[in-house]
Amino acid sequence: MREIVMQCAKVLWDFTRLNQIPIKSDVMIVLGNDDPRTAHYAADLFLEGWSPLVLITGKDGSGTKGKLPHNRTEAEIFQDLMIAKGVPKSCILLETEATNTGENMRLSQALLRRHDISPDKVMLVTKSLMELRAALTFKKQWQGAQNAPSYQEMGEPSYNIYVPSSVRRLATMTLHSSLLSALRLMPPYVR
Hints:
It is a single chain. By secondary structure, this protein is an alpha/beta fold. A 5-stranded parallel beta sheet has the order 3-2-1-4-5, sandwiched between helices. The protein has 6 helices and 5 strands. The chain has helices spanning about 1-15, 35-45, 75-85, 100-115, 130-140, 165-185, and strands at about 25-30, 55, 90-95, 120-125, 150-155. It has 2 domains: about 25-155, 3-Layer(aba) Sandwich (Rossmann fold), CATH 3.40.50; about 160-190.
């Protein structure tokens, strides 16, 4: 059973990954979440020169609600992690109200507008499992996404390093759900 769950996890992992190569961007939007590796990866991208500005977004979400220390937000925690890795505080904007991916996009765009920033290129950085979801949400929620800015999605790159428990749980739930659905479709005498 474990082997089947891991195979399902790998399929889901591959489906949600966009595997993009970084391009220079006007702003890097880092989506807060429950995995500090996102902040470390974003700091590495910043320090490599992929973007001059970082906007970190997130209050709390399903993975962090009620779990963050001292009433801090995902964005504040990620900011501390990125500063500790060498990202200057002066290069970071914080959006601390978003509680889901749609709000991450809408509130980030509003914050950039309040600072008179209209990026032509945006890099989204989130945990790997969220790449596809964040990219699709960006297209839907970012006003003018059809025309500009261009964007790319970056997640921590290695399945071998990061076989997320959430993927395993999702694969297990999907497998169990499929089995339950199949059982419901079976005639009573087969069950």
